[in-house]
Design a protein that fits this description.
Distance between the termini: 15 Å
Structural class: alpha+beta
Strand content: 5-15%
Number of strands: 3
Number of helices: 6
Largest sheet: 3 strands, antiparallel
Strand order of the largest sheet: 1-3-2
Order of helices and strands: HHHEHHEEH
Radius of gyration: 13 Å
């Protein structure tokens, strides 16, 4: 099954968040490895509006693949490695 651009975008986001320091510029007040990155950084990396990035991040969060942390007025997103491993095992078993 070919990947759609939207599907590929979400996989890209998950991949970038595996090592946020390598894929996003430094952020003030937070450690990207500990807290994740905010939607503005993801939007800039994708070359889309913040609203589009928030849509992708929201879906990944609702699926349980990302966790959020609220610091000041921003929400930061990071991978939930345990949940990602669970989902990967489901697909390996032929879900």
């Amino acid at each position: 099954m070919p990947r759609t651009p939207v599907h590929g975008t979400r996989l890209d986001i998950l991949e970038w968040l595996r090592d946020p320091a390598a894929h996003f510029p430094p952020q003030r007040h937070v450690d990207p490895a500990e807290h994740g990155v905010h939607a503005g950084s993801v939007a800039a990396r994708l070359g889309v509006s913040r609203r589009v990035a928030e849509t992708h991040l929201g879906l990944l969060t609702r699926l349980g693949l990302l966790r959020t942390t609220r610091i000041r007025r921003r929400t930061y997103y990071r991978r939930d490695e345990v949940r990602i491993a669970e989902v990967a095992r489901m697909f390996e078993k032929g879900w």
